[in-house]
Amino acid sequence: MSMAVHVGAVGVARPRIEGRAKVTGAARYAADEPIPDLAYGALVLATVARGRVRDIDVASVRDMPGVLGVIDHTNAPRLNPEAGNFFGPDGGLRLLQDDLIPHAGRPIALVVAETPEQARAAAQALPVTYDEQPHDTRLFAGHPAGRPALTLFDAPADIGDVDAELAASAVVVDERYGTPEENCSAMEPHSATAWWEGDRLEAVDSNQGPFQIAFTLATLFHLPPERVRVRVDHIGGGFGGKTMCGPQLILAAMAATRFGRPVRVTLTRAEVFLATAQRPATDQRIRIGADADGRLRAIHHDATYEISPLAEYIEGCTELTKTLYAAPAIRTALTVVPLDILPPYSMRAPGAAPGSFALESAMDELAERVGLDPLELRLRNEPGVGPVSGLPFSSRNLVACLREGARRFGWASRDHRPRMRRAGPLLIGTGLAATSFSTGAFPSTATITAEPDGTFTVAIAAADLGTGARTALTAIAADALAVGTDRIRLRISDSAIGPAWGAGGSRGTASWAWAITEAAAKIRGPERPMTATVDTTQLLGDLASRERHAFSAVFAEVGVDPATGEVRVRRLLGMFAVGRVINPLMARSQVIGGMIGGLSMALHEEGVRDPVTGRHVNADFAGYHIAAHADVPDIEADFVPDDEPGVPWGIKGVGEIGNVGTAAAIANAVWHATGVRQRHLPIRLDRVLES
Predict the structure, then answer these.
(1) Per-residue model confidence as pLDDT tens digits over 519-575
(2) Of 406, 404, 399, which is closest to residue 378 (Cα–Cα)?
(3) Measured distance CA(631)–CA(348) in Å, rounded
(4) Lower CB density within 10 Å: C or N end of the chain?
(5) pLDDT band, residue 1 (cuts 50/70/90)
(6) Which domains does the chain have, with CATH numbers?
(7) Are the C-beta atoms of 599 and 632 separated by less than 8 Å?
(8) Could you tell me which of 669, 668, 665, 663 has the C-alpha nearest to residue 681?
(9) Is 656 part of the annotated catalytic residue set?
(10) Which residue in the list 312, 368, 547, 656 is annotated as catalytic?
């Protein structure tokens, strides 16, 4: 074993630990795990948007080759009616419990067979008849079913007199902005394998938080948590779509229980679209009033979004409105409209991505109407404390992001009038957006063991979505223990390790690092135990005493062909204030990936439903467009010096912030190129095409 001198691993650009395993094919994903005596399950999804299952003709497929049986609402194991997850008492998790169909794509049966091909063939042949009922899948402002959203994560704000300030404003922007349903579209489809070892339910599953998933699974199946173990080694992306306990795991556990052998359920690409959660569509109204010099007097942000009657969900579109700009009057509200759809869930930068598009588009419109540089407008309204909370910011380096981004982008030479630049037949425009995303840490447990050979085993139930968590946590553990990274053996992605926050909300690394750092301090302390376990539940301190956010500024240049409606992003530049950067190589990859996601949101992504049937019509990568290599220009991303006091290592998190402002920056650039505002995403050809 090398005893290299410890020189510090945090802050050093290091290639990811599992990189070679991934590029050589040695890395095992959930569908790759070799399990003896394995059977396979294939889903049958409802083809109607609302109604009841009248009949499932199981007898017609029972004798097909390899078929072991069919599980449906008549014979499925009974799930705990009190089970839930973060977003409500049901969350859409209680599958195959009755004949009700709450949305198209609802799993209504699982066919189990000896091979995946046999299971799929029988599932496709299984006759199902329905009693169809009227459905409603269309979101619009003023929908009669609309009601106030839960306030758990994005409580409404109402400070000052918004109406009076708007009336006294020299300039008022009052516009609506819309975003469609969007799918997380991770490269790896969801897959789970479940089996029983004695009285313990074991599972390998593609998810973003094995401990939370195991706890949910235990509750669903009436089991104590210690009798459920969920593992996941490598994950092919998630973007929020693997945060929840997915249908693949619930159905695999049902089948393993019923047939007494391991069962693997892997979703097809279409099933990922139809049966795993999406970002909800939004309809947002923004009213901003300002004096003639651009000083804000009022901001009113009213966001409406769709949910399912099966579960509450909070799409915090208005969080940024309470954070970014100073104004004496700010009012926000979230309205939900229950529709006959799959329950929405968190997609990368939940709430902030659609909310930022609305707010930062409206700010650009305000800059136009007062005749002010959009950069100067933002600088002129920089708050000293939280505009709504009144709390001090733990750190706030948005101005540094804006100024340095503008310098690198060449913003000072911009003619702010629209439709002034051309390159041959193309109209050229530039735009910017400022943004933030809340940060912090959640309780987690870590165990460190000093091994006889001088190495340290560091165990924490983190998940690595492909973001490099293994590499980052190894560096953090090495520095916390004052040893080289070659002496760290990291164990992650196993619910048996103990409670830990999942990979989501830009809080994974901060939460895990806190637990590892505290455990390392015990190992190095006066008593020097061989093993130390720390639960940070009582150690997180008063994080809520300050506003904690990451910040960024995104600059975009586009070329628009008015004859075809085609928009091409020519340049993207992002400057980020994300606390201390653990690994610059991986952090840059994270924010660039987020900016590509924002580009995809701006120009391509749109879940489309048939208005007659209520069913998705583009539940695949042929119809649901995402940014491809040809759509992505060279992207520049960098970090301004930043630190988060009160959090070990000064971490803020980089997972979400890259997505947030990019769509608005591109939309603002399209206006600058064409002189026409794009208030609904995506910015399709037909919305840009000029006669």
Answers:
(1) 999 999 999 999 999 999 999 988 989 999 999 999 999 999 999 999 999 999 999
(2) 399
(3) 20
(4) C
(5) very low
(6) 30-134+187-237+242-276 (3.30.365.10), 147-182+279-439+545-688 (3.30.365.10), 442-497+512-539 (3.30.365.10)
(7) yes
(8) 663
(9) yes
(10) 656
